[in-house]
Amino acid sequence: MQQDFWLQCWQQNQLGWQQDEAHPLLRSAPSDWLNASPVFVPLCGKSPDLLFLAQQAPVVGAELSEIACRDFFTENQLQATRAEAGEFVCYSAAEIKLWQGDFFAMQSAQVAECRRIYDRAALIALPAPMRRDYVNQLRALMPTADLLLLSLEYPVGEKNGPPFSVPAEEITRLFGFAEVTLLQQRDLTGQGFARRRFDTTYLTETSWRIRW
Ligand SMILES: C[S@@+](CC[C@H](N)C(=O)[O-])C[C@H]1O[C@@H](n2cnc3c(N)ncnc32)[C@H](O)[C@@H]1O
Fold first, then answer.
1. For 70-130, where are the E strands, in sequence order?
2. Do 6 and 104 have their domain in common?
3. The whole model's pTM is what?
4. 70 alpha carbon to ligand 1 midpoint, in Å?
5. CB-based pocket (< 6 A), ligand 1
6. What is the extent of the structural domain holding 4?
7. Is 35 within 8 Å of 6 (Cβ atoms)?
8. 106 C-alpha to center of ligand 1: Å?
9. Ligand 1 geometric centre to CA of 191 (Å)
10. Are residues 139 and 99 in the same domain?
11. Is 80 exceeded by the pLDDT of residue 182?
């Protein structure tokens, strides 16, 4: 997706992906993944998952929108410091640091402390050609990583993304260099995705642990 699309979503407060509380598939992640080591959250928005993760470990997020970064801290009554760093602005409070800027322009030094990655609505936010670039960038940023990935599956012809359907075959292909394990599946048929309703024949949310 083009950056303008996302910036416009934030400007118009069209946040259909926004959760009200931490994601159940994050809460039920394997206990050895939910540890105290710093975690990177690409395309993090103002997700409540950031707060959940920060209860256990330092969190480093990446987010394009200034509105998202500012709202995250103010809505959670956190007093953030703001520092400009080249193409990025770094917001930081307590255990949470958000790099505001383009994820694809990040350098490994910005996530140097992280060994884990949490992806909810990041990979599935991107159209197919960008998903390969996204995985390549994750790999470039973190030569070793333990990724908890939440994905979504529905019949492709029945709805346009985002969120896009990213089925098991694509995940195993994209992460062919890594150890890929399916953890859990949630049937969301007839329910929807966060604030959005879906009229698809089926809708399944999956969680994956991917290590490289
Ligand atoms: C579907 S939302 C998901 C947000 C968050 N992960 C959540 O679960 O609430 C995708 C987010 O990615 C951000 N984004 C899109 N392209 C980006 C980029 N190139 N760099 C950083 N953030 C980006 C958007 O602004 C948006 O907040």
1. 81-85, 88-93, 96-100, 116-120
2. yes
3. 0.98
4. 14
5. 3, 6, 17-18, 43-45, 47, 62-65, 68, 102-104, 120-122, 125
6. 1-11+33-114
7. no
8. 14
9. 22
10. no
11. yes
